[in-house]
Amino acid sequence: MEKLFIGVDIGGTNVASGLVDEEGNLLQRDKRPILADVSQKTSLRQIVDGIRAVAEKEGISLKEIDGIGIGSPGPLDPFQGVAFSPVNLPTWGTVPLKRIMEEELSVPVTVDNDANVVAVGERWKGAGREVDDFLCVTLGTGIGGGAICGGRLLHGFNGNAVEIGHITVDFNGPRCGCGNYGCLELYASANAMARRTRQRIEREKPESLLTEVEQITSRTVFEAAQRGDKFALEMFQETGFFLGVGLVTAINLLNVEMVALTGGLANAGDLIFEPVRRTILERGFPGVKEKVRVIPTELGEDAALLGSAKIAIDGGVFI
Amino acid sequence: MEKLFIGVDIGGTNVASGLVDEEGNLLQRDKRPILADVSQKTSLRQIVDGIRAVAEKEGISLKEIDGIGIGSPGPLDPFQGVAFSPVNLPTWGTVPLKRIMEEELSVPVTVDNDANVVAVGERWKGAGREVDDFLCVTLGTGIGGGAICGGRLLHGFNGNAVEIGHITVDFNGPRCGCGNYGCLELYASANAMARRTRQRIEREKPESLLTEVEQITSRTVFEAAQRGDKFALEMFQETGFFLGVGLVTAINLLNVEMVALTGGLANAGDLIFEPVRRTILERGFPGVKEKVRVIPTELGEDAALLGSAKIAIDGGVFI
Question: Mean per-residue pLDDT for A151-156?
Fold first, then answer.
């Protein structure tokens, strides 16, 4: 009989669940709000309700589910399945997610961080499906990543691998919340681009459609760039350059064959991909830089659902 | 019957060979010069002679050898066993080392780069023997590295993983021979320390035992530091800081539990380890930095012999 799994994607505002078979077909979905400001118990209840709902939609009971995989915001311990005070779920504190969910649902549960399950999903059914050495980078308010190395998800000794937002691009740069200085995230995230845009407008007063400094976000910069605004285009060039610098470091360490970009800034298309690719060709290692492909992810929101189902299929950390 | 392997370490001036059993006992050794300026054929002959000599010393024939592992200077393709014009063997050009050696010796041959076999050796019998996520960094004229991730040697898609000398510490830094800018190797290698010392003496004329600018090497800086020379001590602090900055990036990507340092600068002991460890504590990721150990390697020259034997035992790239 066909085995069935449920993949769960816990975000800062929603929790999505998907029923997935072993071939990676997404058979049912559920998506519902998860409130950041409610108690741990209430938000866990919303997750459980979503999981139950997705089984009900298929008309099956949880007894027929072979495993549940959960992608959660980190930091977390994927080996124990414990989340430690995720930033966007401030009421959580330390949550033994695996244990609580297994007690509640009587199904084996596997937990990993959100960036990792996206990477696993894209490798399974998306952009990375033909490569064994694959880096998937999420460009959101911060920068996260997951890597497949030699066909296996890279976890490291305590599950904190591929904190690519916190590699150094300038040792003399500003201090980051993580404790390091000059982190990639401070230069190439959506927030960083918006902040740098505001700073330069105030300092340099460039000719630009972007005038209302307080209202500048990565989206308004994107919209101005789409209308041909030279200053906004320059901000994308600069952001892509910084991202390229960070990716050169990641490629020189991990020797991945493909980098897939996802999240807000990746949706800007060539505005961001062109300077990223150019920087890698300018700065990358000979014999590697010509071969590395940098492309958009393919699965959108389904990546996390498929990836979290996949970690359940593979029994967790030994992918 | 006990299986026997030969590990070979090709350096810029010597080739060492060792007879190794499956338990990692080094039963016989041979070491002989390898001349950089002779023809490819002659230097390959020296390697073959060393391999034959180590078997002869044990009184056995090559027919009794189950595999030969060769650690060679890179760049190379470990999957095909081909070396591409190693910098310190300028007459080599492209050498299909695996094929040539297998034809010559009729024994299965596995090839990997020198930094990787040192990492494998140290993980097998040295500093890293209790950890699955291990980074081994060689501080020579340049900076090389090998990493074990989740118990397996990290190769990447074309064998160029862990080019740790070429991760960026300052995107605005000087151009490196690899094409990148502000590479770690330009700040934290023995050559970089000597160069920076010479530059600062010429520019700042500090009070120091180091006066003869032309004669300054990492060794003379070390000797002055040992005699308490404040300026020389400062140069070690600075070099250790830069190395720590690079290691923070590597740790944030690979989440290794241990970093072992080897090569010339590592022999300076606390002069280099203290600032490296301090920088990691200052800049590393919370929850990781307190747990990562940075220690010297344990095996000295035997690391490469044992590691190259080990890649032969494991049948090559799938460690």
Answer: 96
Q: Which residues of A touch B249 (CB under 8 A)?
A: 167-168, 249, 253
Answer CATH for B4-113 from 3.30.420.40, 3.40.50.720, 3.40.50.1240, 3.40.50.12650: 3.30.420.40
pLDDT for residue A204 is more than 50 = yes
- The verdict on B45 touching A (C-beta cutoff 8 Å) is no
Q: What is the pLDDT of residue A88?
A: 73
A161–B contact, CB cutoff 8 A: yes
Distance (Å) from the C-alpha of residue A141 to the closest C-alpha of chain B? 19
Chain A partners of B186 at a C-beta cutoff of 8 Å?
Answer: none
Best A133, A143, A153, A253 member to test B by mutation, with max B CBs in 10 Å, is: A253
From residue B174, give the alpha-carbon distance in Å to each of A181, B168, B187, B202: 19, 11, 10, 19
Query: Which residue blocks in chain B are alpha helix, DSSP H?
Result: 40-58, 97-105, 114-125, 185-188, 190-204, 218-226, 230-254, 270-283, 302-313
Q: Judging by DSSP bridges, how do beta strands B14-21 and B26-33 pair with one another?
A: antiparallel
Of B132, B160, B172, the CB nearest to A170: B172
In this predicted structure, what is the pLDDT of residue B38?
Answer: 80
Sorted by where each begins, the domain ranges of chain B are 4-113, 127-296
Helix intervals (H) in B59-165? 97-105, 114-125
Fold of A4-119: Nucleotidyltransferase; domain 5 (3.30.420)
Which of A171, A256, A287 comes nearest B169 by C-beta? A171
| pLDDT average, residue stretch A2-17 | 94
Residue to test with chain B: of A116, A148, A149, most B Cβ within 10 A: A149
Do A247 and A276 contact (CB within 8 A), yes or no? Answer: yes
Matching residue, tokens 């099956």: A60
Q: Report, in angstroms and rounded to the nearest whole number, the Rg of chain B calculated over CA atoms.
A: 20
Shortest Cα distance, chain A CAs vs residue B168, angstroms: 6
Percent of chain A with pLDDT over 70: 99
Is the Cβ pair B171, A169 closer than 8 Å? yes
